[in-house]
Design a protein that fits this description.
The chain is mainly alpha-helical. It folds into two domains: 90 residues; 39 residues, no CATH class. Helix content is 63%, strand content 4%. It has six helices and three strands; from the N terminus they run ααααββααβ. Strands 2-1-3 form a three-stranded antiparallel beta sheet. Helix 2 packs antiparallel against helix 3.
């Protein structure tokens, strides 16, 4: 219970400094790697983003992970993500393997039950996504992919 609110000033200083360093590293590498790293997230991109967040948090909070080691891991993930997406853009078979095909789950006012099952979605989840995009009248929507 002694360390519930505060342990010591040295640890706090390390956390503050490492947080700034990790933040600058992630902002810089995201900027250098381009829009792909934060937009158009497919499953592969999402997993890499979660990994980067996890490594960043571990680097900030765990004294056993020096900044250089955590930072190197983050940079390597960005490089690997770039290489995989670059190769996917020039190799259709690899692209097919790494990325998922789009699937229409709602078309001209009708939910497509087979497509919903294949994507493991419920009608309620699709309706929620439609409402979050500002669609209140589903008849106005041509398709949901």
């Amino acid at each position: 219970m002694d360390m519930l609110m505060f342990d010591d000033l040295e640890k706090l200083g390390r956390i503050l400094l490492t947080t700034v360093m990790v933040y600058v590293l992630i902002v810089t590498t995201t900027k250098v790697s381009g829009k792909r790293s934060t937009s158009q997230l497919n499953n592969f991109d999402w997993i890499v983003t979660v990994m980067i967040g996890s490594i960043g948090a571990s680097t900030i909070l765990l004294e056993s992970i020096p900044f250089v080691e955590g930072g190197s891991s983050i940079i390597l993930l960005y490089v690997l993500q770039y290489l995989v997406t670059k190769y996917a853009s020039i190799s259709p078979p690899f692209s097919q393997f790494i990325l998922s095909d789009p699937r229409i789950v709602f078309y001209q006012g009708q939910f497509l039950p087979e497509a919903l099952r294949a994507e493991r979605l419920t009608q309620q989840e699709v309706e929620c996504a439609m409402r979050s995009e500002g669609a209140n009248d589903f008849d106005e929507i041509e398709a949901v992919v």
